[in-house]
Design a protein that fits this description.
The complex is a heterodimer of chains A (129) and B (311).
Chain A (H helix, E strand, L loop, with lengths): L15 H13 L3 E7 L10 E2 L11 H13 L4 E8 L6 E9 L6 E8 L5 E8 L1
Chain B lengths: L1 H5 L12 H8 L1 H11 L4 H22 L11 E5 L5 H14 L8 E4 L1 H4 L7 H12 L3 E5 L14 H14 L5 E6 L1 H10 L1 H6 L2 E5 L4 H15 L2 E2 L1 H15 L6 H23 L6 H4 L1 E2 L1 H5 L2 H5 L10
Parallel strand pairs in B: 1-4, 1-5, 2-3, 3-4, 6-7
Helix pairs in contact in B: 3-4, 3-5, 7-8, 11-12, 11-13
Classes of the chains: A alpha+beta (129), B alpha/beta (311).
């Protein structure tokens, strides 16, 4: 099942040139880029593993692409996303985030049901490989 | 219209390129003129920059016409005594390479050993990479590069930084230009012990010392930029000062001049305070007199024509 979260996730996967162009856009806005990866794309799993520190003060997308390359080499079968962090006062948050790497077979999200007290039922998503 | 021009040959590539027009369109002329105007002396350096610009223009024309082209390696080493304008020229170089589309962004990242080499095992690689990432698309200027290599300590982390640098210089040739700078004799020794660097750096540019006349004109330009000027006697005194200062140890060309001027301004301010009885005008506030310069220690310790006292 194709996981859709962040920008562009309903589009076909971005090529490296397209990723470079997006990163250039982010850098042009003065945003810092962070590379993150995870094996669990559950929507509630907000905090992915960081691949090094977020990169402030970059001028060219090549620096990000180098890190992405290294991350892909180390985690080819994980999800990798780029986060663009806007540090301007009052925002100070991730303003853009998109997936740049997916495993060959993606896990599925399955709805599960649990009984709890008083015959009430709880529903939750579960990632299944 | 653009399409009609482009389709003049079979593959849609132009069959001829007007180099002069390219030259004018690229904005390189402005930078070279600026270089001539604002930097005093440095003839061989300017010559080399011109040659580099020509090479890149031809390269660009070849690319436009679809001829085979291998982007030239433009890593450089700047050697010269302190204060001969290496950093200033590096800044101009970054600008020039950007105008010629050789590098994408055209910024200069200036670093020394401390920025590249870590303090414990495993610290160096991320630190060096961090700097390299920042320099991507621009020029990485490594000042006093020979400190990277410490022959007396074989476990020095500098070696690690050197290896990463060499790798990036080779693999990311179209992403950044590395300029190593330092004093000539030490750089030579550095290259001898690191043959990898020598073979990867095609352009060795030597910065000559300034002569006395050039230094005086540098002094006048510096003052002019700060909104000051010499009176006639002060200019003569300054050229005398330069001749004496040169024979003292730790003479650092333009940098020494800048420091001397800073001290002269200090004395001028002091003099205005002590002497002025009434209001002072703009003329007085911006004039350096002979007295402001002649109070320098250099005049009491160095005789004008006895070079043997120099050290």
């Amino acid at each position: 099942m194709r996981i859709t979260q962040g920008c562009f996730s309903f589009l076909p996967d971005l090529s490296d040139e397209q990723i470079t162009a997006q990163v250039e856009y982010c850098l042009g806005k003065g945003w810092a880029i962070g590379v993150e990866y995870t094996d669990d794309p559950h929507p509630r799993n907000t905090y992915w593993e960081m691949w090094g520190n977020p990169m402030f003060d970059l001028r060219d997308a090549k620096g990000v692409m180098m890190e992405l390359e290294d991350c892909r080499k180390a985690h080819p079968q994980d999800y990798i996303r780029l986060n663009a962090f806007d540090s301007s006062r009052g925002l100070e948050t991730v303003t853009m985030s998109f997936i740049v790497n997916r495993p060959d077979n993606e896990p599925t999200l399955r709805m599960t049901r649990t009984e709890s007290r008083g015959r009430s039922q709880h529903y939750a998503w579960e990632t299944q490989r | 219209m653009a399409m009609a021009e482009a389709s003049s040959s079979a593959e849609g590539l132009p069959t001829s390129v007007d180099l002069v027009e390219e030259y004018n369109a690229s904005g390189v002329a402005e930078i070279l003129d600026e270089l001539d105007r604002e930097l005093v002396g440095l003839k061989p350096v300017k010559q080399r920059i011109r040659e580099t610009a020509a090479l890149l223009l031809v390269e660009r024309a070849r690319r436009a016409m679809g001829l085979s082209h291998e982007p030239p390696s433009l890593h450089m080493s700047f050697t010269g005594n302190p204060g001969t304008g290496k950093t200033t020229v590096a800044l101009r170089m970054a600008n020039l390479l950007h105008r010629l589309d050789y590098i994408r962004k055209g910024h200069l990242v200036s670093v020394t050993r401390d920025d590249l080499v870590g303090q414990y095992i495993g610290h160096t690689a991320p630190k060096t990479k961090e700097i390299l990432k920042k320099a991507m698309g621009g020029v990485l200027f490594i000042d006093e590069a020979y400190y990277l290599y410490r022959p007396d300590n074989e476990r020095d982390y500098g070696q690690e930084a050197i290896e990463i640098l060499l790798q990036v210089m080779e693999n990311n040739r179209d992403d950044l230009v590395v300029i190593l700078a330092g004093y000539a004799d030490r750089m030579d020794r550095f290259f001898e012990s690191n043959p990898g660097f020598r073979s990867r750096i095609a352009h060795h540019i030597d910065f000559p010392d300034y002569d006395d006349k050039e230094l005086l004109s540098i002094a006048e330009t510096m003052l002019g930029r700060q909104g000051y000027q010499f009176d006639t006697k002060a200019a003569a005194m300054m050229s005398d000062y330069i001749a004496r200062r040169r024979r003292q140890p730790h003479f650092a060309n333009a940098r020494s001049i800048r420091n001397a001027l800073d001290r002269a301004r200090l004395r001028q301010a002091n003099r205005l305070f002590e002497e002025s009885a009434g209001p002072v005008d703009a003329q007085q506030l911006s004039t350096i007199t002979a007295g402001d310069i002649s109070a320098s220690r250099v005049f009491s310790t160095v005789e004008p024509n006895h070079p043997e006292i120099s050290s």
